[in-house]
Amino acid sequence: MNKKTKVLSLLVFGTLLLTSCGGKKDNGDIIAPKPVEKHSDAILSMQNYHNTSTQNWGGNTYSITVTRTVDRSLPVTEDENGQKYYDNKINLLVKRSDGSVFLEKIFSKSDFSEYITGDYGKKGALLGVVFDKIDGGNLKFGASIGSPDKTSDEYIPFVVTISRSGSVSISKDTQMDTGSDVAPQDEQDDSN
User: Fold this and answer.
1) Residues 61 and 54 sit within 8 Å (Cβ to Cβ)
2) At 192, is the pLDDT very low, low, confident or very high (cuts 50, 70, 90)?
3) Cα distances (Å, whole numbers) of residue 49 to 18, 167, 183
């Protein structure tokens, strides 16, 4: 090859290189495709929990134990992405100071069916029941039904009231309480 051909080849190569890079501006943006939510074909379970507290109610001391367990006999629930989960049952046990049982009630999602609306209520799981306060001589609990995905904040809040006579009533919670979590996902006193 002569000198003229080499220079011409380098010139063509350089032009091609500049042309192939032309029009692309590097503005620092990295565009990545939106991740597709994948879910397992397996049916998942929420974590079981067990919590006991002591309350002074009507001048007497009561022990309140709430236990959430997976119940595979209940209809399967699902989160917003279609991931399937087993539903839960919740055992609420209120004992007097002498150890006698004042009230024992097992809750499932069907206990709240009168108030369930929307997909995350109908498809969702019974998430939790937690002691809230003593109000007007009644024990008040927060309860929730919603997405079983622990990272979700989709749920319907309820109030469960236990009277001094032991009657249980359920109503939809119309007041947002930002001071406490009525849908416990992971309690410190967990048991599987």
Assistant:
1) yes
2) very low
3) 64, 25, 12
